[in-house]
């Protein structure tokens, strides 16, 4: 166990397992030795590891990937696209059996491809949350899809009511859709509406880019839940959360501006 120094005055971060301040990582199928090394160094900073898209389905090492996460106290989660394809092909029962067999404990229920109705999504969340932790994502993967703030917030609220543990705000790996304008800047009206209507400890904002992480940390503090964090950005993100990087050092009063 890492014995972190404690002589600096920094914002408090809860220990894992924690109910806020989550770091959710997007794993695109990194080689197992790299995952092992990454978890040895920064596993204590990671709460959820999403095995992105359908990579889990193709990965001969998926059981090892899942087992490594579990032994590091990290929730291994299947990507939402896999769930959406299983739904389209009427293979949800098969997905459940297979996910249980490989030891996955969480499934993302998303509608990025926009082929699932609201009522079908609610039923999926309801059903899957009896056996898995469900991360229910709102938002389309198509940047041309309109973002209607009131619809987003009500979909997120109904996903939580249907049994989702967390409501995930779509930002993709790119950080250019859903929560973000095509230039990567935030849709602040959406953020404001989410903050006004939903419990923030149950919301994960996908924030793959540094500037997006900074914006959300400055708006909500060190313990905002952030998702789709690239694996090699876990430690840098933690420095942003606690003000050990120039971008947030003044906000967190790690240095007092003159
Ligand atoms: O929805 C997501 O955030 C991810 C990554 S991306 O949107 O496809 O870039 O997809 P998922 O299928 O949930 O892994």
From TrEMBL:
Alphabetized UniProt keyword annotations: Lyase
Protein name as it appears in the record: Phosphosulfolactate synthase
InterPro entries assigned: Aldolase_TIM, ComA_synth, ComA_synth_sf
GO MF term list: phosphosulfolactate synthase activity
UniProt-listed SUPFAM superfamilies: (2r)-phospho-3-sulfolactate synthase ComA
Pfam families the UniProt entry points to: ComA
Family assignment from sequence similarity: Belongs to the phosphosulfolactate synthase family.
EC number assigned by the record: 4.4.1.19
Top-level taxon: Bacteria
